[in-house]
Amino acid sequence: MLKKYIIIFLTSMVPLLELRGAIPFSVGFGLPSIPSFIICVIGNMLPVPVIFWFARRVLEWGKDKKAIGGFFTWCLEKGDKGGKKLTEKAGRGVYVALFLFVGIPLPGTGAWTGTLAASFLDLEWKKSVVAVMAGVVLAGLIMYLVSIGAFGAVSAIIN
Question: pTM of the entire structure?
Fold first, then answer.
């Protein structure tokens, strides 16, 4: 069982998959809901400080490098564009918008992207973490409900 917990923990740290991929794994593995959910949230939030404080600096440093410059430039442009769009639409409610952005489980809208956008916008650290964490919890709940529904439907069809 420990191996399964390690798998969902590590999966929840991976960009693009995050806990949106880890929670269906935990349901598929038959792991207990609450401990699995907590492990997925912790795994998803663990990279947030590194992303907030260092990702932008690393991207800025690497944008001129031959092998990685194109990808790093793309990441910078995407982060800048997403941040501006978020600010324009949200105005003073930027933290609520950040929460909703992270909380709606669509590809490219997780903790990694939300934290990077907060970094690009020079948002306040504590408020950004609270908004991202609340969004991660919302996305996790949505994914959990979808997962138990999907696995329940498959089980009903097979049996």
Answer: 0.83
